[in-house]
Amino acid sequence: MTTPTAPGSLHLTQLTKRYGPVTAVDNVSLQIQRGEFLTLLGPSGSGKTTLLMMIAGFQEATSGDILLDGTSIGAMPAEKRGFGMVFQGYALFPHMTVRDNVGYALSVRHRSRAEIAARVDEMLDLVQLTTLGDRMPGQLSGGQQQRVALARALCFAPPVLLLDEPLGALDKKLRIEVQAQLKDIHRRVGTTFVYVTHDQEEALSMSDRIVIMRNGRIEQVGTPSDLYQNPRTEFAASFLGKSNFLRQGGAVYALRPEKIDLSPAGSGPARLRGQVRDMAYFGAVLKYQVTVPGGEAIEVDVDAWRGGDPLPPGTDVDLNWTDAAAVRLDG
Amino acid sequence: MTPARPRLNAGWLLVLPLLALVVALFLGPIVNILWLSVTDPEPGLGNYAALFTSDSLGKILWTTLRICVICTVISVILGYSIAYAMVHAAESDRKRMLSLLLVSFWISVLVRTFSWLMLLGRNGLVNNGLEAIGVISQPIAFMRNELGVLIGMVHYMVPYAVLPILASMQAMDGRVVSASRSLGATGAQTFWRVYLPLTRPGVVAAALLVFIINLGFYVVPAVLGGGKVLMVAEYISVQVLITLRWGTAAMLAALLLFGVLALLFLMSRFMKLSTVFGGART
């Protein structure tokens, strides 16, 4: 007999979490596909971590339910759900070796030594830590600890892996490296990943879909490119990437800085005329601040290679963009 | 350039009076005791040899050791439970519990011991009460035996056990417990495999502290044992005050001292004492 839905899909229905008068998560409904890499993105206090903790079973929902492959698990404690979890700060067992950490989930399930050893080898291989199995967590670097935490959480082949800001403690260069590894591991194990972060670059580079959260509610859900190209609210547009906001006749439009053409004044028609206030050089791009009538500053990113020589502050410039570049926002 | 010459830092002068006091009033008497133990009544190791020849000395040491071990085990288990409850209580409750715990430090051990006498004596509250409701016909002998001594000692020791254990529990990263649960461990598995091992420094510190205080405990065994339960400290006082065998008393005191030092040394072989007395690892 086949199950109606493949294992590893999650369905959140009207999940709400209140702490006294404070509503941390407010009526969130979401369908997460099997094998999907879904990111909950939002600033601190947006409810993303609380939502993850409810999925994990560490927080009980005030109302609403969670379905795993169609079966309600809302009332099930964390240890029964069998979801893997990578904690912020990793929460490795400091008194156990790397091998014992990774094999813990199988050991508490009373699997045989041989089976545990084989699976631990497989996991250490997956995260490229084969030579460090007998070290204690305290002897590892941050990046290595992060990989141990990942191997530990995946060792018992959970249908869902929850990750709570797992890269938060790493420096920027390492973070980009680990992002690629994480994405690769996700592809290889095929587990559903639910990933919490406040870092928009992490969200954009790894996710199949991103859920932008704000004040306990879902602001917008979509693929990274969908969210970037078609934000629906000012919050979504400014939290994911940078955006200028133009107000025209009661409507608000989001306009990404790199979608604006900037040229010296007088070379043709212009949507807006302005004056360069400031220019910052970033190697690949030149970031201009352009003052337009009304006193507002508009950000314009110019490709440094194709955009010609930098224009000094005070230069009068014409700004142009295509109709498709400006996205009309809700409200 | 001036040549570097070893010079005593003037700051040490400030410590000097204190150092003199410690030497004169603390180290001096200890050396004196050690000296007495090998010179009184005659020079030699005769006092120590008595340990192996005298039945009564052996019995006293055995009683002391047995009571200390039992009391330590019970105190640490009770202390662990109390500390666990405190860590998991709400913030305001925890503060209330902590102040209750500290209050018990301020009440004189004599007062507490005599209170037990009132409660558990032949005509004490407990026996009278039980007789009144017909549970027992004869008073239970709580006092003038090891049971009484143990009750009194455990009562006195539990706060000492709670504090180091509490410190190690508070220092622990609570997420490892969540991690254990997320990996499918039951409550019992999480406790035995993660929680207890990570709070072990606190348990060891508590056990050490309680055991060492117990070794030299005088008041409780003297009062609640009623002369029937003779432990080392009481025996020493008898030797000093009544039978005037200072050599034997000094020998026993030295034995306690070395026992404690040996214990500390043994523990230091297994773990850094600083982590034990610091409460927990970071």
Polypeptide structure, described:
The complex is a heterodimer of chains A (331) and B (282). With 331 residues, chain A is α+β, with helices and mostly antiparallel strands. Chain A folds into two domains: 220 residues, P-loop containing nucleotide triphosphate hydrolases (Rossmann fold, 3-Layer(aba) Sandwich); 80 residues, OB fold (Dihydrolipoamide Acetyltransferase, E2P) (Beta Barrel), CATH 2.40.50. Chain A is 26% helix and 32% strand. A six-stranded mixed sheet of chain A has the order 6-7-8-3-9-10, sandwiched between helices. In chain A, strands 13-17-14-15-16 form a five-stranded antiparallel sheet, with no helix packed on it. The longest helix of chain A has 18 residues. The termini of chain A are far apart. The N terminus of chain A is likely disordered. By secondary structure, chain B is mainly α. Chain B has 13 helices and no strands. Chains A and B meet through loops of A and α8 and α9 of B.
Question: What is the topology?
Answer:
The complex is a heterodimer of chains A (331) and B (282).
Chain A: E1 10-19, E2 22-32, E3 37-41, H1 48-56, E4 63-68, E5 71-72, H2 78-81, E6 84-86, H3 98-107, H4 113-126, H5 142-154, E7 160-164, H6 172-189, E8 192-197, H7 200-206, E9 209-214, E10 217-222, H8 224-229, H9 234-239, E11 244-248, E12 251-255, E13 261-264, E14 272-281, E15 285-291, E16 297-303, E17 316-320, E18 326-328
Parallel strand pairs in A: 3-8, 3-9, 6-7, 7-8
Antiparallel strand pairs in A: 1-2, 1-4, 4-5, 9-10, 11-12, 12-18, 13-17, 14-15, 14-17, 15-16
Helix pairs in contact in A: 3-4, 3-5, 4-5
Chain B: H1 11-39, H2 46-53, H3 55-87, H4 91-106, H5 109-120, H6 125-132, H7 146-171, H8 175-182, H9 187-215, H10 219-224, H11 232-241, H12 246-270, H13 273-277
